[in-house]
Amino acid sequence: MRKLVAYLFLLTLAGCGSVQIKPPLCPGTRDYDVQVCRGEKVYHIPNPPLAALQRKAKCEQCIDIKDNCVWGVPQHCEPKWRWDQK
Question: What is d(CA 10, CA 18) in angstroms, rounded to the nearest whole number?
Fold first, then answer.
């Protein structure tokens, strides 16, 4: 019985020793926000070269309209109903 209590005590000490205590969040931020007061920096990933022109070309070809036509759907890409076609 004493061995069991000793093992549980050691296990408890090992478990408590491995827990990392996080510093408090910056005021007014959430856990996943950038913590500027802790020294974290915002990282902006740049767009690839000519990304806007590629999206416009895909939009004009009616490829993946939801993602590429951010300026509005062109008329030739809008769905046509049977009674609208001439």
Answer: 12
- Rounded to the nearest 5 degrees, what angle is found at the Cα of 5, between the Cα atoms of 2 and 10? 125
What residues does each domain of the chain span?
A: 36-71
Of residues 61 and 9, more confidence is placed in 61
The alpha-helical segments, DSSP class H, found in the chain are 2-18, 51-60, 65-68
- Virtual torsion, Cα 15, 17, 23, 29, nearest 10 deg: -10
DSSP state of 46: P
Residue 19: predicted pLDDT: 65
Nearest in space to 77 (alpha carbons), one of 67, 69, 41, 13: 69
d(CA 51, CA 64): 15
Phi then psi for residue 65, to 5 deg, are -60, -40
pTM of the predicted protein model? 0.42
